[in-house]
Amino acid sequence: MSTVDTTEQSSSAPRRGRKPAPATTVAMAPGAVVPAAPPAAQAGPEHVTEPVAYDAIVLAGFGGPEGQDDVLPFLRNVTAGRGIPDERLEEVAHHYRAFGGVSPINSHNRQLKAALETELAGRGIELPIYWGNRNWDPYLNDALREADAAGHRRLLAIPTSAYSSYSSCRQYREDLADALEDTGLGGVLEVDKVRQYFDHPGFVAPFVDGVAAGLATLREHGASTIEVLFATHSIPMGDAQRSGPAELGLGDGGAYAAQHRAVAEVVMEAIGEPETPWQLVYQSRSGPPSQPWLEPDVNDAIAELPAKGVDGVVIVPLGFLSDHMEVAWDLDTEAMETAAEHQIAAARVPTPGIHPKFVAGLVDLVVERLEGTPVAARPALTSLGPWYDVCRPGCCENARRGFRPAVAGLAP
Question: Which family would the database say this protein is a member of (predicted)?
């Protein structure tokens, strides 16, 4: 039985795992309407307010290459089922190759896992953490095998994404269903996930600190008119419109855009500068030109700033937990080059990473489910939260793939 080694690996370490195939089904307890759920969530409540005795945590990541030889196989995993030839993948591969073929994301997740273990131990919470990725070693199927081998049966997943959309929420739920079928552990393991935490104080606090510091730095260096750009990964408009439950009526950008805008407003209010100009911008689009994606692109937004008399820009990676490739390349490289080209002073705000408030906030989310915290006692800084524990029917559909088996939500 394979195990997951969560120690730091060299880029030459051999791969031991593989990405699971898409699941065809996921086990459901008799009378349940939520697959793979413990009894408290089986009936599909919006919020689970009964204590649940989890015995392990799964940190669910995206994954990234750790050497030049990993880059193309990793990108094939990311684009599996889409028929994209290697020549086109190489157009993206050069971002990774510029950094020695190593994405920072796995290193950051090792750090986050260690920080969470320290925080749990400090609170006397005896829950082991198993880390598994969607697209690269260690994979989620190996994480579930390791948890099973240790005798754990009830798992709580922490996806490394804070917002609602197909790729940032539902796909993680599908990944867990894929891993359950691949390992044959469907009907053996129960798997829940924490709520989306875009507006949890622990996630927002590092951005408040960062934006305040970024504004102060630019002003110290002489910038007189500053705009704040809150950046997140662009997604197809169709996916954005389907993010979150349709009945919420959150507009063309769905829950995905609404959640980001709400958090940006909270950040600007928290630093006492609600009148300082800001906008939500997008990055890292990868679809064909014929397919509409969320806009404006961060570089286009920067290029328009001089006409508004702006001489300083604070770039906030609001959609990201850590400094992975979309931050290192799209913001720290391309966006900074665009700012320099237009003679605009720029400061990039840190991602939450292992900020103590963020780490503590993630553990708070675990405690919510362990204790069955009432909804009124759950912290949320926007009117959109606290978000659902059990995803609603039809939430975050990927129209190109249809509704695939997923855990922690009501069908479809």
Answer: Belongs to the ferrochelatase family.
